[in-house]
Amino acid sequence: MLFNKIEKAGVPENLRIKVSREIDKIEKVGWSKVKKLLTNIPGIDENTAGKIQQVFKLWELSQPDEIGQKMNRVYEEASKRNIPLKWDLTLARGLDYYTDMIFEVQVNGYSAGAVCGGGRYDNLIGFFAGKNIPAVGCAFGFDRLIEAMEELKLFPKNILNSSSEILVTVFNEKFLNTSLTVLNLLRKAQINAEIYFETDQRLDKQLKYADKKGILYAIIIGPDEKKSNKVTIKNLFLKSQETVASDKLISYFK
What we know:
Elements lengths: L1 H7 L7 H8 L2 H4 L1 H9 L6 H16 L1 H18 L21 E5 L7 E7 L3 H6 L6 E5 L1 H10 L14 E3 L7 H13 L4 E3 L7 H10 L4 E4 L2 H6 L1 E6 L4 E6 L3 H5 L1
Helix pairs in contact: 1-2, 4-5
């Protein structure tokens, strides 16, 4: 329908995609700025830009009549489900493959724009399947969803907490295999544990990592522990620690 309105303003077919992309900016920058952007397109003068604006202004005034029976049905069904809709003829997204209505999903209170977009594309699947298959689809922007949740403070306070009960630290690169052996031992006993894989990080940074993620215990295997076949278990909540024989490790946690 956007192309139909642009056509009524006398825009040549080869310029309609460029014009539609400038019109899509109306909500952000307003009509006066968009008119200037339109006149920067070779083949679009001030007279044509004015006609484009006039066509859209007339459409806004007659919107209820032009939406038609199908759109009214969409509004009715959305209203029943308490879903607010805004009919926006200026919206333009991916018009190279969309064949009909397009839509975006926005979150109230989120300032950066849509978190989801999609529409009707009758030819896209057919391009790969060899026959036209009408379809409607959408895709969420993962980064924007996360950003919106952060901005609106929707994440639970303990979201950063780990499901691990134990962090197996790594004294240095030479001790990595020893730490991995202890990790595998814990996991075989169905004890939730993880390992700190950066072998060049100081022990205090590893402990801070465990504390930040809400991990209760840290296992330390340094030169003394390895030599005596023992491990040091640090309780990060009680700020205490004790050293036990490696073969007693599982029974300690059980």
